[in-house]
Specification:
By secondary structure, the protein is an alpha+beta fold. The chain has two domains: 121 residues, no CATH class; 215 residues, Jelly Rolls (Sandwich). The chain is 30% helix and 25% strand. The protein is built from six helices and 16 strands. The strands form two sheets. Strands 1, 2, 4, 9, 10, 11, 13 and 14 form an eight-stranded antiparallel sheet that branches. Strands 8-7-6-5-12-3-16-15 form an eight-stranded antiparallel sheet, with no helix packed on it. A hairpin with a 6-residue loop joins strand 5 and strand 6. Helix 4 packs across helix 5 and helix 5 packs antiparallel against helix 6. It is elongated and about 85 Å long. The two termini are 24 Å apart. The mean pLDDT is 89.
Length: 368
């Protein structure tokens, strides 16, 4: 019995697996555009805005206070993505994320690198309201507080420092791997001081009425982006001298992660487990078809050869994904793809004897 048709099926399965793992094969256009009817930027599926250089914030109080204001409107109420991040390798990080309809603040706090610990503050139902949301995160001697539309929403006992507002600023995406947010960004400001409740409320009211905050000198504003250029690839900092933002022509991810360890990838989120399931199911046909082909060709230990081949194909995909900004390079996929391949092998081992009993040209091969 000729097996060229099974070879063709295996080749087709391999092409499909590589396509699903690597598509698109290029860096897509950065889907950031100026709003036509007002000041602001629109963010699409793959979109990011990055500071032209790193922020290096110094504070007269020893670096123990800082604030950030962001005026925005998500496209989707239920989403899981990064709104804003300060990032620099080897330094503390600060992330603002939309998680379903809520807001999640993630930070690494502590002056001693070996003793740093993760801090988290969750604010529920922030984005249930229709229309733009004005968010303020401020931290100082009283801890960390999150305000929505000028009103206190949640407080945390941990204290951020100016070092948490240091590094490259990434807006609408995450450094390291793709995590794009979609919606409209209408304003952004950064301070090296802890804003008081009256100051937060005053800023919200002036942002809403005048499309810019009324800032006093003692608030030590270091960045103010009004997004009023309405053209071009640069968002100018209204505070001089200051760090501008730029809009890349192609979608890029700052400091791409190469083969992220599975223990850092792990998450209890729906998106994580959905990806795990897809990666397992996606390699089941691969394991089934290649094990069948190797068995019919009487290759020694077809099951083992199939699992090894599936793992090598998965490793190739993960290495190449490190150069594709829309894909994530991680070791979790290696494990799930290998499991999916083995499940396909197991399926062939279950179906093969039935076929062998009916067709003389079918051979099962060794169990190993």
């Amino acid at each position: 019995m000729k097996t060229w048709h099974l070879d063709l099926v295996c080749f087709a399965v391999l092409v499909v697996v590589l396509t699903l793992g690597l598509w698109p094969f290029h860096s897509p256009k950065n889907e950031v555009s100026w709003l036509g009817n007002r000041n602001g930027l629109g963010f699409g599926r793959f979109s990011t805005v990055i500071s032209s250089r790193a922020f290096n914030i110094m504070s007269a109080e020893g670096g123990r206070s800082g604030s950030v204001e962001i005026w925005l409107q998500p496209r989707h109420i239920w989403d899981d993505c990064t709104l804003l991040a300060f990032y620099s390798p080897g330094t503390p990080y600060l992330f603002l994320r939309q998680y379903d309809a809520g807001l999640k603040l993630l930070a690494e706090i502590g002056d001693d690198r070996s003793a740093r610990k993760a801090a988290r503050l969750d604010v529920q139902n922030v984005f249930r309201k229709s229309g733009p949301i004005f968010l303020t995160v401020t931290s100082g001697i009283h801890g960390t507080a999150v305000y929505t539309d000028g009103l206190l929403a949640k407080t945390g006992q941990f204290r951020l420092s100016t070092s948490d507002f240091t590094g490259r600023l990434v807006i609408g995406d995450s450094p390291g791997q793709t995590d794009s947010w979609s919606g409209q960004l209408l304003g952004l400001a950064i301070y090296r001081s802890e804003l008081t409740a009256p100051q937060v409320l005053r800023h919200y009211e002036t942002w809403r009425h005048d499309e810019r905050p009324k800032i006093s000198e003692d608030e030590r504003n270091i960045a103010l982006y009004l997004f009023d250029e309405r053209a071009g690839a640069v968002v100018h900092n209204q505070t001089r001298p200051g760090v501008n933002l730029y809009i890349p022509e192609k979608y890029v991810v700052l400091d791409r992660i190469f083969l992220e360890p599975f223990w850092t990838e792990f998450s209890m989120s729906r998106s994580y487990w959905s990806a795990v399931l897809k990666n397992i199911v996606g390699f089941v046909p691969f394991g089934f078809c290649f094990c069948a082909c190797f068995s019919l060709r009487k290759i020694r230990r077809p099951a083992l050869a199939t699992v090894i081949l599936g793992t090598l194909v998965s490793l190739t995909i993960e290495i190449l994904q490190a150069y594709l900004p829309t894909r994530d390079s991680g070791t979790t996929d290696l494990l799930t793809n290998a499991l999916g391949t083995y499940m396909g092998v197991f399926a062939w081992r279950a179906v093969g004897p039935i076929l062998a009993a009916r067709f003389s040209w079918v051979t099962i091969g060794d169990l190993a």
